[in-house]
Every structure is written in structure tokens, then in C-alpha cells.
Specification:
By secondary structure, the protein is mainly alpha-helical. The protein folds into 2 domains: about 200 residues, serine acetyltransferase, domain 1 (Orthogonal Bundle), CATH 1.10.3130; about 30 residues, no CATH class. The protein is about 50% helix and about 0% strand. The protein contains 14 helices and 2 strands. Strands 1-2 form a two-stranded antiparallel sheet. The longest helix has 20 residues. It is elongated and about 90 Å long.
């Protein structure tokens, strides 16, 4: 009897110790799971030059095809915006330091004006007017305005008539404001995006015929709009009037070379005068005849 009571007492002690050694865990508070953080999509990296196709290289020579917008206060960002604005508005023409709008550039760097305001300053600053308004016919000037400010070609002759009326009735600055204050400009570029050429991408509400006009205005790689050949004739006028599609030129095998069609034929090589004198003396010494010298030399020298 005593042995049974002792064993029962020891079992109770062991159970008490076990309970003391392993206390019950406190209840865990039910908290909501933290929201998952999704990583922002990174912009696609541009392919290397060696990986680009011939068509991509040709297009890159004309335009980047991507929006450049001012979203930071860094010096590099402002410089990129300013360079892109000059290139787009002046049609890839070189602008000398004396022709740059230093005051407008400073205002853009300090955030006093937006990119759209800077574009307006470039257009009405005098240089744009001298390069395009005073140089080209009205129809050509309007075609280039569509390209520089809206990044596309005119869709039809009615658009050209509307802007011709603005120029005739309200003047040059009103024509520039008609692009920069339009809904199309605001939807595509807003206040902080530099206009860029959108002709290679089909636009909403644009037919196929209007799409082909962009290739006519694109020119060639390494060209500029201030040196348009045959500037007396608008490039799109006949197609717009007749509602015809413009011809899409074939891509040249070397996109960054000057067109061989415009190069004059190479002249035949001419021998230096020193070699001609030396040849004359040698022939005279060996033959003693001036006639043989003239006949022999005529085989190698072309006048």
C-alpha cells in the first residue's frame, strides 16, 4: 500500500515538473498580412548598336522615337531635355552658341517655365522664323510645323487650309500657338515632354494614307530640315490634294552615308606636274623625239 502511494506521488511530481518546464505559449495576436510590394516595371533597355537591324539603325538616325521628359532636377536631365528640344524644333539643324536662347534655358533649368513654354520660346525666338517661315513657301512651312510640334505629317489638305487661314489672318505667333495649345499636343506631350516624331507609329483615328505621309517628311538620316532639297515645292501638297498615299522610300544599304545619287561623278585622276616633267626628260633622252613623248603621255593623262 505504501509503495503504491509513493509511486502515485512521484508520478504527480513528474507531471507538475513537466508542466512547469513547458508553459503554455501565449496566444498569438491575429494581425493582417502586410501588403505585397510589387516592383515597378523597369523601362526596356535599348538594344546595342550591333544588335539593331538595318531598319532600326535607319530610324535611330532620324529620331529616338521615345519621349524625353523633365522629371528630375539634375543637371544631366535638364541638359538632355534642352538638347532634345533644339533637335526636334529645328529639324536636326545645328544651332550655334550665339543662336541659343540662354535666358529661356536658364528659366527651364530653375523650373520657372515648363518644357512646353521652352518649346514656344524656341519657336518664336526669331531663329525658327528665319530658318523656315522666311525661307520656305507657306505649305512647306506648315508641313514642317506639323512635324516639329506635333511629331506627324498633315493628314489631309483641310488641315493645311486651316493653318494657312491662321497665318493669313492672325500671323506667325498665332500659328505656333495653334499647335502648342491644341488638345493633341497636350494629350501626347503635356507640359513636360519634348515633342518627338510619332510618324512611324499609327495614331488613333489616322488612316493608312495619312500614315504614309510621315515617311516623306522624315528625310534621310544625317539630314536637316533647313536644307530640304527642292524647297520651292511642298513635298506633300499634291498627295494631300489628290488624297493619294505617299511613296515610302526603300532603306538604303548604308543608312549613315550620303546618297550617291547627289554626288557629282568623280573626275579622272591627274598626274602631278613634277612627274610629267620627269617623264618628258626621260623620253627625250632615250628617243630624242617630242612626238613619241606626246603620244605616250596621252595614254596616261586625260585633260
Amino acid at each position: 500500500m505504501f509503495s503504491q502511494f509513493k509511486s502515485l506521488f512521484n508520478n504527480n511530481q513528474d507531471s507538475n515538473v513537466a508542466v512547469a518546464e513547458k508553459p503554455a505559449a501565449p496566444p498569438v495576436a491575429q494581425t493582417a498580412a502586410p501588403p505585397l510590394k510589387t516592383k515597378a516595371a523597369e523601362p526596356p533597355k535599348p538594344p546595342k548598336t550591333s544588335d539593331k537591324s538595318l531598319t532600326e539603325k535607319y530610324r535611330d538616325g532620324l529620331t529616338t522615337g521615345t519621349p524625353i521628359w523633365s522629371n528630375a532636377d539634375s543637371v544631366e536631365d535638364k541638359d538632355l531635355v534642352i538638347r532634345a528640344a533644339y533637335k526636334q524644333i529645328f529639324g536636326n539643324a545645328h544651332v550655334m552658341d550665339s543662336e541659343r536662347l540662354v535666358k529661356a534655358e536658364s528659366q527651364l533649368r530653375f523650373g520657372e517655365i515648363s518644357v512646353r513654354d521652352f518649346i514656344r520660346e524656341l519657336a518664336v525666338g526669331g531663329r525658327y522664323q528665319a530658318l523656315f517661315w522666311e525661307k520656305y513657301p507657306t505649305s512647306t512651312f506648315i508641313e514642317l510645323n506639323f512635324k516639329h510640334f506635333l511629331g506627324r505629317a498633315p493628314q489631309n489638305q483641310e488641315e493645311v487650309r486651316q493653318h494657312t487661314k491662321i497665318l493669313r489672318e492672325d500671323g506667325f505667333e498665332a500659328e505656333i500657338d495653334s499647335y502648342l495649345n491644341s488638345d493633341e499636343y497636350y494629350v501626347n506631350f503635356g507640359e513636360h515632354i519634348v515633342p518627338y516624331f510619332r510618324g512611324y507609329s499609327s495614331q488613333v483615328g489616322q488612316d493608312v494614307v495619312a500614315f504614309t505621309h510621315a515617311f516623306t517628311l522624315a528625310n534621310m538620316a544625317c539630314s536637316s530640315d533647313k536644307s530640304v532639297l527642292n524647297s520651292d515645292t511642298p513635298r506633300l501638297q499634291l498627295n494631300l490634294i489628290n488624297k493619294q498615299a505617299s511613296e515610302i522610300p526603300a532603306v538604303r544599304p548604308i543608312p549613315d552615308s550620303y546618297p550617291s545619287d547627289f554626288l557629282p561623278p568623280a573626275r579622272p585622276p591627274r598626274l602631278p606636274s613634277e612627274l610629267i616633267v620627269m617623264a618628258r626628260k626621260i623620253l627625250q633622252e632615250r628617243t630624242g623625239s617630242e612626238e613619241i613623248y606626246s603620244e605616250t603621255l596621252s595614254l596616261y593623262v586625260k585633260s
